[in-house]
Amino acid sequence: MSLLPVAQAQARLFALAPRLATETVPITAAVGRWLAQDLAALRNQPWTDLSAMDGYAVRAAEAPGPWRVTGESAAGTANLPLLPPGEASRIFTGAPLPPGADAILIQENAARDGDRLTASADPLPAGRHVRSAASDFAQDALLLEAGSRLGPAQIALAVLGGHGAVPVGERPTVALLSTGNELVPPGAPTPPGFLPSSNAPMLAALLAALPCDVIDLGIVPDDLDAMASALDRARTADIIVSTGGASVGDHDLVRPAFIKAGGALDFWKIKMRPGKPLMAGRIGDTLFLGLPGNPVSAFVTATLFLLPLVRHLGGARDPFPPMSDAPLASPLPATGDRDDYLRAWRGQDGIVSVTSQDSAATAAMAKADCLILRPAGSPPAAPGDRVVILPLP
Ligand SMILES: Nc1nc2c(c(=O)[nH]1)N[C@H]1C(S)=C(S)[C@@H](COP(=O)(O)OP(=O)(O)OC[C@H]3O[C@@H](n4cnc5c(N)ncnc54)[C@H](O)[C@@H]3O)O[C@H]1N2
Ligand code: MOO
Q1: Ligand nearest to the CA of 293
Q2: Which of 52, 160, 164, 210 has the fewest CB atoms within 10 Å distance of its CB?
Q3: Å from CA of 67 to ligand 1 middle
Q4: DSSP-assigned letters across all residues of 202-244
Q5: What is the rounded distance in angstroms from the CA atom of residue 228 to the CA atom of residue 70?
Q6: pLDDT of residue 355
Q7: Where does ligand 1 bind, in terms of residues with CB under 6 Å?
Q8: What is the mean pLDDT of each run of 10 residues along the chain (393 residues)?
Q9: Angle (CA) 195 197 200, round 5°
């Protein structure tokens, strides 16, 4: 079987995965989720011309006064009477300007003696310290496009736009299955032959940044029937993710177990390093991703396939990790016949690849804050050469 290029594999994975239904949730529960529809403003912001400062509302053409201070405007007032010529109104930040006023004299620049007011400094142009009606956004304006992620700034915008609830993609459920006779749960004793299972906690940590619900189904031994029944039990999830047992050894049983459980495999073996044995398919309505067991391979394939899949299902417009380019600080060897995703960190002088690129080197992986993408067949690279990087979450 020839190796499938990463972009083709990602496209095939998404083709297996229709987006989830949408639901309307209170705005406070929408953080991190993706809008299911364009969001338009239900109101003008500001609703009318407002003062940006504490001071006096005046007619700018009358500066530097004197004015007679008559009315007052505070935030929360409306329907103010016309400001007669020659008069000023005391005003506070966020309060509406009385009709006729067109500038704010800030109180630091005002001299007041009883109800007599004069401007003590600088010319006062019309519009000074005024936030004009709808200058932030107007009613019916498009605030946020479908597929946008709702972070803190987007939530503020939606609320000011008049929305108390928003339509978003549902949260997918992700079931994690760790395969391997050698695995024990985190923190358990490790007699000879055993090691702690780190993949599920690592994947749960990666998924914690996304709106999804993670179920850890624990460790399954390298046994065809045990794996097949574990996969079958996991079918209530939207996505099943296994780690380990994905390669070609006699104990690598995930693929036959998936087929035994009734799954239809769509692809296996990707033109990437690490991560070659990655596989994907469907079992009923559930998507299946079989990640390699090596912790670094599982980390990289999760970054390039699992996280984008969760974003896609939840309605994201941009599901893939962003890429940029940056200069290298240290040299790189030529790549082989697979795309390399090298673990690296962003130093002051450029990108530094971590010392060990072995797919079991977790100490080196933990120093990385980005991946360098080096396409298959790239020649050696020297310090100063620009490379494509993917920042890590
Ligand atoms: N003859 C070949 N051998 C291998 C090939 C190949 O093409 N031909 N591919 C290699 C590549 S590339 C990878 S990647 C690995 C992946 O193998 P598996 O997915 O079958 O993973 P395992 O053999 O089950 O485990 C590999 C390694 O990772 C450790 N492991 C597994 N699960 C966990 C876990 N939950 N937590 C921590 N560590 C885990 C496991 O003990 C092994 O050391 O295959 C190559 N072989
Ligand atoms: O493709 Mo594997 O993940 O190199 O060790």
Answers
A1: 1
A2: 164
A3: 82
A4: HHHHHHTTSS-EEEEEEEE-S-HHHHHHHHHHGGGSSEEEEES
A5: 82
A6: 86
A7: 178, 180, 182-183, 195, 197-199, 243-248, 252, 274, 276-277, 292-295, 297, 359-360
A8: 93 94 97 98 98 98 96 94 98 98 97 96 92 98 98 98 98 98 98 98 98 98 97 97 94 95 97 98 97 98 98 97 96 96 96 93 95 97 98 91
A9: 170
Please write the tens of the pLDDT for every residue from 32-86.
999 999 999 999 999 999 999 999 999 999 999 999 999 999 999 999 999 999 9
Residue 342 DSSP one-character state: E
Ligand 1 centroid, distance to 294 Cα (angstroms): 5
Among protein residues, the one whose CA lies closest to atom 24 of ligand 1: 244
pLDDT of residue 303: 98
CATH of segment(s) 324-391: 2.40.340.10
DSSP structural state of residue 391? E
Question: Cβ contacts of residue 104 below 8 Å, gap of 6+?
Answer: 51, 52, 53, 55, 56, 57, 58, 91, 97, 128, 129, 130
What's the pTM? 0.94
Q: Per residue in 44-59, is it b (16+ CB within 10 Å) or e — as a string?
A: bbbeebbbebbbbbbb
With 0-12 / 13-18 / 19 or more C-beta atoms within 10 angstroms meaning exposed / middle / buried, residue 195 is: exposed
Any residues with Cβ below 6 Å from ligand 2, and which? 273-276, 292, 294, 297, 359
Give me the pLDDT at residue 1, please.
61
Tokens 């000074």 belong to which residue?
128
CATH architecture for segment(s) 22-45+136-169: Alpha-Beta Complex (3.90)
Question: What is 50-131's CATH number?
Answer: 2.170.190.11
Q: Tokens 């020839």 map to which residue?
A: 2
Q: Which of 258, 294, 305, 362 to mutate to test the pocket of ligand 1 (most atoms within 8 A of CB)?
A: 294
Q: What is the number of alpha carbons within 13 Å of residue 10 lying toward its C-beta? A: 19
Q: Closest by alpha carbon to 245, among 228, 232, 263, 233?
A: 228
Ligand 2 center from residue 111 Cα (angstroms): 75
Q: Which fold has domain 6-20+171-313?
A: Molybdenum Cofactor Biosythetic Enzyme; Chain A (3.40.980)
